[in-house]
Design goal:
By secondary structure, the chain is of the alpha/beta class. It has one domain: 3-Layer(aba) Sandwich (Rossmann fold), CATH 3.40.50. Helices cover 27% and strands 14% of the residues. It is built from three helices and three strands. A three-stranded parallel β-sheet has the order 1-2-3, with helices on one face. β1, α3 and β2 form a beta-alpha-beta unit. The N and C termini lie far apart (46 Å). It binds S-adenosylmethionine. The site of S-adenosylmethionine has 13 residues, from α1.
């Protein structure tokens, strides 16, 4: 039995509670290690963060980054996309400036999303 068969449709991690805790823990670890910055400094040099921006997060997982961005930049609209919505938070806990979609990034995005993001 081989353990290294490449499965392009599979996901090697679990999408259960432990999988979500792992992703969120990694997010907070990386954020803490980078001075509590949610954006790379080169991004901040490129855009005026005080203006209303629309941001896409591809392969968003638990949407922990969109949710964190939404708190830090309440005047932004953040759209998260993932091939599975299994790790998305409860709809009632998603702030109004975050939208989450189930979408395979290797498939074309509907035309209404083209040219909409910073
Ligand atoms: C390691 S997780 C990262 C999640 C998140 N970006 C984070 O940093 O916490 C990878 C994510 O990619 C998603 N993913 C894998 N293939 C994808 C595809 N073809 N289209 C969209 N999402 C995909 C998985 O479902 C998973 O949620």
């Amino acid at each position: 039995m081989s353990l290294n068969v490449y499965n392009p449709s599979g996901y090697i991690f679990n999408r259960n509670l432990q999988g979500s805790i792992r992703l969120n823990y990694q997010h907070f670890l990386m954020t803490q290690l980078t001075g509590n910055e949610l954006l790379h400094k080169s991004t901040k040099e490129l855009v005026d963060v005080s203006t209303p921006l629309r941001v896409a997060d591809i392969a968003t997982g638990t949407a922990i980054w969109p949710l964190s961005l939404a708190r830090a930049y309440p005047h932004w609209q953040i759209d998260g996309f993932d091939i599975s919505n299994a790790q998305y938070p409860f709809a009632a806990s998603i702030p109004a400036n975050v939208s989450l979609y189930e979408h395979n990034t290797f498939q074309p995005f509907p035309v209404e999303y083209h040219g909409k993001y910073e």
